[in-house]
Hints:
Strand order of the largest sheet of chain B: 2-3-4-6-5
Strand content of chain A: 15-25%
Order of helices and strands of chain A: HEHEHEHHEHEHEEEHEEHEHEHH
CATH architecture of chain B: 3-Layer(aba) Sandwich
Number of helices of chain A: 12
Largest sheet of chain B: 5 strands, parallel
Bound molecules: thiamine diphosphate
CATH topology of chain B: Rossmann fold
Number of strands of chain B: 7
CATH class of chain B: Alpha Beta
CATH architecture of the largest domain in chain A: 3-Layer(aba) Sandwich
Oligomer: heterodimer
Amino acid sequence: MSIKLAQGGRPDELEMRTCYCNTLMELAARDDRIVVLDADLMKSMGMMPFKLKYPDRAFDVGVQEANMIGVAAGLSATGKVPFAHSFGPFATRRCFDQVFLSAAYARLNVRIVGSDPGITAAYNGGTHMPFEDLGIMRNVPGITIIEPTDAAMLKDIVIQTADLYGVFYIRLLRRNAVRIYEDGSRFEIGKAVPLRDGTDATVFAMGYLVNESLRAADMLAEDGISLRVVNMFTLKPIDKEMIIKCAEETGAIVTAENHSIINGLGSAVAEVLSEHCPVPLRRVGVRDMFGEVGPVDYLAKRFGLTAEDVARNVREAIELKAQRKR
Amino acid sequence: MDISAQKIKELKAFAIKIRIETIKETADLGFGHLGGAMSVVELLAVLYGEVMKIDPKNPDWPDRDWLICSKGHAGPAVYAALALKGYFPLEELSTLNKPGTNLPSHCDRNKTPGIDMTTGSLGQGASLAVGVALGHRLDKRDNYTYLILGDGELQEGQVWEAAMLAAHHGLDRLIAFVDYNKQQLDGYVRDINDPGDISGKFESFGWNAYKADGRDVADILDRIKSAKLAKGKPSVIVLDTIKGQGCTFAEGKLDNHHMTISREQAEEALAVLYKELEEVTGQ
Ligand SMILES: Cc1ncc(C[n+]2csc(CCOP(=O)(O)OP(=O)(O)O)c2C)c(N)n1
């Protein structure tokens, strides 16, 4: 791991999908095992440059996600390294048995990319707004689940997974993420990354909530509260050691995810805490609800996914910690 | 029964009005799934303007005909038809996709009066329609279930599972339409994953298959009438359409699935349509 933090917390000029496409083209140039699949969302994913450059290695199967995953698994059985994309709900819910059996149970080698995480599905509305994709995929034995936070991390992760074996779920924002890391940063899959030190509580955040959590830390600092922020970009395998360490050192934990609190990051952290180091826990995330249509900032408020929500939960967790000591 | 020239005129005018309202509601937001909404407008005019047994004041009337728009992203066109029929006030159309709206980008039976089924994950409306048609038959009702499929949507295996089962059960009160606009999101259907002879495929699955000019309300109406005469099998009508049809800045464009829409574009398209409306109604 070698990580440099970017300054400023500004939206990146580079869209995540452009970075994804560029990285795959780089990989494909030196590794002819790389193939990509899509289910009629290749344009949406910004993958046309790849398709133009490598027409024989880009399979746009049309609107048929289950078939796509099966085909990807079949390709991998012949030594290819497939990256298969659809919108998050259709890359998980719509083809789960193919993911589970054709890919994972058969011990094949497939990278599944689900785009528009949670509220970032915005104007596509509830049918396209995955609050459950992580939860569904977490049930697959041996799967690796990653939500890259920005383009620097995305590039590194895509390159790394190309040389690994197994089933991967990469949860991907298509548009511009807030830049957290400098280009060239290297990450270790399964190892959470501390972003800001703090002593009163720790927030474990993923994806959209990473920057919101950094903003929450700023807000809390004004009141003299010291919040540690850790980027849990790998949901599975979860970084148990980091969770236990932060629980011991700060005594209060908050999780923050653009996803249901059921079976996502909140659940994964709760499982580790309750078995190893029970301390007060608060979970920021969607509370057993379906998505709906609207702009992202409206949806963030509607589903309680703002910096203010993180800050409030941190205060509650710290209060619970204090109560226990009394 | 002969279709009077007057009726055809009315249906043409209704289609233009649906088109106008659909463009207005999406332009209000500045973007939307315009291409696939435009190509079903004539069909919606025929269904809501003549064919379907409905009561806009009583959207849940048990004996009504049902419409399941499986290509749920065409919702904005269906909403326009519903509003024009009086299911809800026309002004509500401007809430499309806005916070708290009852008109989300994909059809939602729990939100919009007159929307019979929730769709948006392509392929699923086909099975839902088979279930609804079976249910009506169990209840000994004689109402019809209409199903709208996209041509790209036909790539979903679920459509063909539903087709097989519908024929097996001889669901002759199920009438499906394929919006054969030849395009899907990424380009031309034949370039991406070609379904080939669509009516031939349905026939081999045990359906009656018809073709109609999807831009011609009279032809669509005619075919639906033939479909109703056929007994013992479900029917499909493959509608020859153009993605974006009737909308100056969308028709015939390659990237017209989801478009941004400028005020000028909208005004230009609407001006053409108001003129057409004048010509049709003679006013
Ligand atoms: C299961 C599923 N996969 C993908 C999508 C995203 N999507 C929405 S519309 C569309 C293209 C549909 O093409 P077609 O059925 O031909 O519709 P039309 O061209 O008439 O709009 C896609 C891929 C979806 N809504 N559902």
